[in-house]
Amino acid sequence: MKSVCVADFREAARRRLPKVLFDYIDGGSYAETTLAANVADFAAIQLRQRVMRDVSDLKLSTEVFGRSLSMPVILAPIGLAGMNARRGEAQAARAAQAAGVPFTLSTVAVCPIEEVTAAATAPWYQLYMIKDRGFMIELLARAEAAGCPALMFTVDLPVAGTRYRDARNGMIVSGLGDSLRQGLDGLAHPQWLVDVMLRGGPHILGNIAAASPELRTLSQFWKWVGGNFDAAVTWDDIAWVREHWDGPIIIKGVLDAEDAREARRRGADGVVVSNHGGRQLDGAASSISALPAVADAVGQDLTVLFDGGVRSGLDVLKALALGAKACLIGRAWVYALGADGQRGVATVLDVMRRELAVAMALTGCVDVRTADRSLLVEG
Questions:
Q1: Long-range contacts (CB closer than 8 Å, 24 or more residues apart) made by 139-146
Q2: Which sequence positions are flagged as catalytic?
Q3: What is the pLDDT of residue 176?
Q4: C-alpha dihedral sign at 355, 357, 361, 365
Q5: Taking 80 as the threshold, does the pLDDT of residue 162 lie above it?
Q6: Is pLDDT at 210 greater than 80 in this prediction?
Q7: Mean pLDDT, rounded, for 3-30
Q8: pLDDT of 259
Q9: What is the CATH class of 6-369?
Q10: Which of these, 76, 83, 97, 59, lies nearest to 333 by C-alpha position?
Q11: pLDDT surpassing 80 at residue 179
């Protein structure tokens, strides 16, 4: 079946990938209520259809932190993306470059910064607070040397959320039985096995390999996260990051308006309204329901970006109408990567562009930079 939307790519990825990998990208924490709300709350927002508005000349481009984007979409950081397709982060970065949108590289990516930069335009870099500050300084220096134009400081993972799918699959705590099941599952997916396991090495966390060369399995990767991410992170750490980074600092993981105001007070350049894709605190607000209050609180002073539940260009327009400058997509691009590599990511971006254009035309919005709440049916 030809994949023509994000849901199609999700199904294609489910068929192609081993269960442990698909569930890692598809799942959320606990009962996954926040994960579901991220999508359902978008669906409940109604666009206001308008007619006779002269929509013959649509402008989808925008500017974020002095950089031109062909449309208000950014590829979000996805950990271990390179396990879903051969050198997956590099493939996604090439697709993003061709589409004229930024790609954000995760701290816990398979491909290191240097490889991704060699493959395409320097990515935005996503940073977690790690206990070893000396190693963090090295990471920031590498990102700066690679020419990364922005730093996305993710702050909503001081501790890892409880993800039942990962526990059932043995990704978090793996024994002999789990390893055997994962091995058999890999053999049952020969296309992925050849593409990734046989041809896609080295299977390491490229950005942290120097500090942890012994990491080789998914379970080991996850245990490293639990042991090295710093639960003592506070707002004071933004000043520390600023000492070692000259470019824009974007705080990712903000759901509360007061936290957004604190980010502004601490000198951040932007915030990402996000609940980590429903993978952290289950029962937290959906990202889209939290967006208006954050945008109202700081939208004139900070660049407000959005993440969580974006599955179409229509969703992008809804988020812009509620105050976002641009949207991050995560699962949307990694489903496509797992299904069809760089070509899949390119297709998803093209689909979103066309969906956004149609939504703009049918709401009478001719320029994404002017999108506001007048595009929505008042609830």
A1: 139/107, 139/207, 139/208, 140/241, 140/244, 140/245, 141/244, 142/113, 142/114, 142/207, 143/113, 143/245, 144/245, 144/246, 144/247, 146/113, 146/114, 146/117, 146/122
A2: 276
A3: 63
A4: positive
A5: yes
A6: no
A7: 96
A8: 98
A9: alpha beta
A10: 76
A11: no
